[in-house]
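We give the entry.
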Amino acid sequence: MRPYGPRAGRGGEGEVTLHDILARFPKARKSGKSWSARCPAHDDRHASLSISRGTDGRVLLNCHAGCSADQVCRSLGLEMKDLFPNDNHRAARSSKAAKKVVATYDYTDEAGALIFQVVRFEPKDFRHRRPNGACSPVNNMDGVRRVPYNLPELAKTEQVLVVEGEKDCETARSFGVVATTNSGGAGKWRDEYSEFLRGKRVVVIPDADEPGRKHAQRVASSLVGKAASIKFIELPGSKDLSEWRERGGTRDQLLTLIANATEWTPPAVPSGAAIVREIERLLSNFILLPLHTLLAVALWIIGTHLFEAGVDRCVFDAFPFLILCSPTPRCGKTRTLEVSELVVSRPRRTTNISEAALFRLADSQRPTFLIDEQEGLNEKTERAEALRGLLNAGHRRGAKATRCAGANRDEVRDFDVYSPKMLAGIGDLPSTLRDRAIVLNMQRRQASQSVARFVYRVVAQSTTDLRIKIEAWVTANRERIGAIYETVPSAEFLSDREE
């Protein structure tokens, strides 16, 4: 959820100040420039609500358990319009009025039962929501099964188009052709989606831009060994299938393009050693790490991609944390997180994450958590103890967090918390975490040492190909890795947890 809220200031008619909000939370605790409090919108036991002042003077309300700012406001007896000063009321109302729903796309299970929806707005924007019984839909994806679009139709056809976006799927339907896509746009295809296309003739139609082409390559690589055949077609003079139809494209022309397309041949899989060296060079460009640690970090990064196909297909029964310990500030721990974010699988970089957010995200998205500022894990507070316990459990397959869920908190549900996690903090972290981790002791750079300047967007563009190489190597070698993992002899000099 993007945090937003009332503008702070002296206050006027209809305006709520930061002081007004904090007055409603007498037990709020200050941490740095923000406050933590129990969220009034759900049964919060661990102070999941963050309250702070934005750079533009607004008060930011962010529930780390997933409650929207609107839900928090209603629980406080406020409306969203009350949270803006008078000079912003009109703009806020007109902005809301201008954004209208133009389409909803249902993602269903194999039998056609609704799992979740993607809602398209104009001006162009997208939101996910899931059904909530007889109540209004919930605007989050907590615990929701992820499936490709048009799932019931996939089982009935031998040839499937893979396009980017639900609108193009509906365009294909108008041509009498079955198409599918993933929610969330380019870069969000999951390996488990490819299982639904096993044995089928697949035609991938990339959007005619750089992200679209890279996304299509990612989809095709995921289909290798599963699909009966894979073809690519480019739509002349158009960005996507919908624009091509608007410019006069017909069903017969589309079928001719498909028939004339040649089989796609996957690029040669790079060697694992070459990928490791490339990751090591990336890290050493921007971070000063002891040479003997570069290999460990590179292998850990590659290992996160074994979760891409889902936790059930990850070959490891345990996956160690990677802990970055700094004796003082400015030792490079945050930069290590930033660089790693560009090449790990499904990165989720965050600070001060709550227990509720951690187990919900781990269960629904299986991200690689990159968690900064974790000095508070040594505290003896209820919140720190709960988070420590969840982290301790989450390095092994089968670990569950059992919590109350549902609209009325009357459902008991198990959340799977097994996922990769990189933790960074100043000073030592709890021994129970270190016992489950690869620990890197960071050191401040000396005046005689230098690293390259890190510009996030520039480095992000340059690492796209490296991510594709890692994904291709893992896809090609997953079964071999699993076979070796299951048969390798025990290392008798290690304890069970170390091994």
Q: What stands out?
A: The radius of gyration is 25 Å.
